[in-house]
Amino acid sequence: MRKRNYLLPNTFTALNLLSGFLAVINAANGQYVSAAWLIVLAALFDAFDGRVARSTQTFSRFGVEADSLADMVSFGVAPAFLAYQIGLARLGHLGLVVTFVPLLSAAVRLARFNVLLRNLKTKRGFLGLPAPSAALAVAAYVIAYSGNKPLRHVDVLAVLCVLLGLLMVSTFHYAPIPKLSLKAGTRNSFGVTFLFVWMALSLMWPKIFMFPMWMVYILSGPFDWLRKNTPFFVSQGELSGFSGESEEEVEPEERPV
């Protein structure tokens, strides 16, 4: 009976991989917005597989490795290929280099995550920008501003790809996407509220809210580092009785597998 339980989280992993594969096909066929939405769909499947595995006690090394391989396609290859197809190809060899930066960074980021997770079952945060979050930034930009046509101006997209690549391999700490529960305290409640507000506003007015609001999360890692290490913020925190440190560590919690 227990062996059958492994099928459920691995099904979500397979759907994640399928979504990424279809995103590549759609991008190759010029269906850029469809490809971007498929990356969003892959991120949803990716969010569920880990939660299902933990809730059903079917966490396994096989699942971790399979999930990373699927993520490499959906959040490494798919967004890089989409960015190349929708405009960066016009930059020639420079476009290849620019799109390879987030692809390589996603591979390094996923490999580093697996190494850090070797003896861990739970995580409280991320070291470096998660690959799915970086892919969502590219997808959000395409959905918001492309109009399903090749971009006329690719400067912003090129800078975005390089920035996302650097943030993925950085040591900035990022909070995990909040659990869909209001029982985890005020911080989680704020995160859940932000997530739902972002999704609602993105569906109604994608050009205004989808990409800018997601960039709030993308830049939260560097901002949090500045808040904890810049003398001005530190001194302000001391004056107000707030040290600038979070209530719980962002590092994963050690548990034997």
Question: Describe it for me?
Answer:
Helix 4 packs antiparallel against helix 5 (about 95-115) and helix 8 runs antiparallel to helix 9. The protein has a single domain (about 1-240), classed as Four Helix Bundle (Hemerythrin (Met), subunit A). The protein has 11 helices and 2 strands; from the N terminus they run H-H-H-H-H-E-H-H-E-H-H-H-H. It has about 260 residues and is an all-alpha fold. The chain has helices at about 1-5, 5-30, 30-55, 60-85, 95-115, 130-145, 155-170, 185-205, 205-220, 220-230, 230-240, and strands spanning about 125, 175. The model is unreliable at about 240-255 (pLDDT under 50). The protein starts with a helix and ends in an 18-residue tail after the last helix.
List the topology elements.
Elements: H1 2-5, H2 7-28, H3 32-55, H4 61-86, H5 93-116, E1 126-127, H6 131-145, H7 155-168, E2 173-174, H8 186-204, H9 206-218, H10 220-229, H11 231-239
Antiparallel strand pairs: 1-2
Could you say what the CATH topology is called? Four Helix Bundle (Hemerythrin (Met), subunit A)
Distance between the termini: 20 Å
The CATH first-level class comes to: Mainly Alpha
| Mean of all residue-level pLDDT scores | 81
CATH superfamily: CDP-alcohol phosphotransferase transmembrane (TM) domain
Helical residues, percent: over 70%
- The total beta strand count reads 2
- What percentage of the residues does DSSP assign to strands (E)? under 5%
* Tally of helical runs: 11
One letter per element, helices H and strands E, the order comes to HHHHHEHHEHHHH
Question: Which CATH-level-2 architecture?
Answer: Up-down Bundle
> Cα-atom Rg, whole angstroms?
19 Å
Q: How would you sum up the major sheet?
A: 2 strands, antiparallel
Strand order in the sheet with the most strands: 1-2
Runs with pLDDT <50, length 5+? 238-257
Shape: globular
Overall domain count: 1
SS-based class: mainly alpha
